[in-house]
Amino acid sequence: MAVQMPFGGFLFVQKLLRFCTSSQRHLRHRDIIVKLIKSQRQMRTFSAGCVKCNENESEDMDSSRLSTKLTSRQALLASRRRPLSPLERISSLLPQDALSPEVMQLRGQNQQEAEEDTNIWVSATQKESGHPETVTGDETISIDDESDNYHATLPGESLLAFGELLVAEYYKKGRVEFRKMFKLQTGTRLQSSWGVILHDNIARQPAGQFLKTSRGVPILIRRASLEDYVLYMRRGPAIVYPKDAGTMLKMMDITEGDCVLESGSGSGAMSLFLSRAVGSKGSVMSVEVREDHLRRAILNYERWRTSWSLRRGEDWPDNVRFHNADLCTASSLLAGQGFHAIVLDLTNPHLVLPTVIPHLHPGAVCAVYLANITQVTDLLEGIRWLALPLLCECIVEVPIRHWLVAPAMQKNGQYCTRKAPILDKDHSEEEEEEEEEEKADETEKELATDEHPAFGSIPYIARPHPEQISHTAFLVKLRKCVK
Q1: 10 Å Cβ neighbour count for 435?
Q2: Strand 259-263's sheet: what is its strand order?
Q3: pLDDT for res 223
Q4: What is the pLDDT of residue 455?
Q5: Residue 280 and residue 318: Cα distance in Å, rounded?
Q6: Helices 7-22 and 86-93 meet at what angle, rounded to 10?
Q7: According to the model, what pLDDT value does residue 213 have?
Q8: Angle at 206 between CA 205 and CA 210, to 5 degrees
């Protein structure tokens, strides 16, 4: 770097530097100093690789170009970033050891102001462009600059964590070809016929996302709902299916804070549905006569509670108390208790009715889950013979019929075309056929070139699903009445 300056100009600049470094009021007299230096501007020239004479002009041109792209707020913030003054340029050419403490302090203040202006400008740019700020931790939001979309978790939920129960699904032609519930663990792999996905690659990802296997097949990874869990959890005896559990909850009209008795814990499916229905203020007493079934129900109950706490960051209500007893001979277990509802899932429920009905509040409902119609007749006959204060309101079966609804496809993988109805009846049959062929050809050409055909141009086919749920149980609704 070379500096060329007349002798008089050099003495003037040297005096000016001494004056600035010795004065504590440099900021107050900055405008005066700049004017004095500009008057001597013709006496000096600088030639350097990084400093140009037309620096102010280039900055003005750059600012004018940016002004057309910035909004009013951004332009106001950008205008606060002033160019370097002549004094600051001269001080930048001198060695750092030759600068006084006052100049070093002033330089630090200028750098801090520049950083603050930059941060303000960046935050204003994010607000005006509509991009939310990223948040670290469990609530991290990954921003996609290309698509201007962001992926976030559901309110109250965190990213996928180790120990959670997840469901992997593979869809092909609108049908689920693969579904598996698994627990997210460190160093484990999700194996399928379509490839492998490492559990470590699933963790810290948002739920409901497609991840590709080692063979490039997209697999949907989502959290397991309570319905998924009771269908795919480990079982001992048969479970109460979700479709029947929902109907039984509606029969009993269970609300938060109720106290419910369940006889026949089984694998714990109905216990979980009751636990969610009564909430943290209610309670469920589950009684099972077999110890192995009771152990399975407790394990399934605790496994779901653990996964829920990792998912929501709060504990699932610990409101179910499991007991190993036979209600026919365990009247002492129910002593002094009253229930808003009773659920019976037993082979011979009429045998325990004389024990449990006295503890049911008047007007409350006892829902019974029975596998065959013979058990239903035995139950009604037992109520008649024992003269119990129960009114059988209804006996229902809950069928569910799944349907497949998908666009009509040709063998070559293209969509079928919808043919418009013929409104003009004056044309001959040959002319009508020719018009239909022409329209079909035009539509096929449009569909071949367009990945998303127009609305209403594709016909659909609907048919029952080949795999239907067969009969599960009969549900009997018994209401306690006062005679």
Answers
A1: 14
A2: 320-324, 283-288, 259-263, 339-344, 360-370, 474-480, 390-396
A3: 95
A4: 82
A5: 7
A6: 100
A7: 94
A8: 85
- Measured distance CA(228)–CA(153) in Å, rounded: 20
Residue 99 has a pLDDT of 62
In DSSP terms, 460 is beta-bridged to 407
CB atoms within 10 A of CB 39: 9
CA 400 to CA 203: how far, in whole Å? Answer: 35
**Cα-Cα end-to-end distance for the chain:** 110
Given this model, what pLDDT does residue 422 score?
60
Query: Is-contact 181 166, C-beta < 8 A?
Result: yes
Full 3-state SS string of 53-97: CCHHHHHHHHHHHHHCCCCHHHHHHHHCCCCCCHHHHHHHHCCHH
Instruction: List the 175-183 sheet strands across, edge first.
Output: 175-183, 165-172, 218-223, 209-212
pLDDT of 405 reads: 87
Whole-number Cα distances in Å, 439 to 77, 419, 425, 435, 457: 59, 8, 17, 6, 12
Nearest to 164 by CA among 309, 299, 314: 309
pLDDT of residue 423: 59
Q: How far apart are CA 196 and CA 221, in angstroms?
A: 13
- The pTM of the full predicted model, rounded to 2 decimals, is 0.64
In which residue ranges of the chain is pLDDT below 70?
Answer: 1-153, 420-451
Residue 109's pLDDT is what? 58
Secondary structure of 245-311 in HEC code, one letter for each residue = HHHHHHHHCCCCCCEEEEECCCCCHHHHHHHHHHCCCCEEEEEECCHHHHHHHHHHHHHHHHHHHHH
| Residues facing residue 4 across a β-bridge | 45
